[in-house]
Amino acid sequence: MAVAEKHPHLPAIERDWAVRLRANSALMRQIHAAVNGPFHLVHPATFASNLCAFQRVLTEQRVNGDVYYGKKANKASCWLSEVARMEGCVDVASVPEFVHSLANGIRGDQIGITGAAKSERLLWLAARHGALVAIDALDELERAIRIAADGERINILLRVLPPKAPNSRFGLNQQELEHALKRCLEACELVAMKGFSFHLDGYAVAPRAALAHQLIDTIDAARVLGLTANTLSIGGGFACAYVTEDDWQRFNAAYSPELFHADKQFAGFYPYYQAPTGAAMLREILMTPGPEQTTLAARLNQHRIRLLLEPGRALLDGAGMSVFPVQGYKHHHGCDHGIVTVNGLSMSLSEQWKNSEFLPDPLLLQCGAERDQIPTRAAIGGASCMEYDVLSWRKIPFAAPPRHGDLILYPNTAGYQMDKNESEFHQLPLPPKVVVREREGDTLWSLDQ
Question: Are the CB atoms for 412 and 318 separated by under 8 Å?
Answer without folding.
Answer: yes
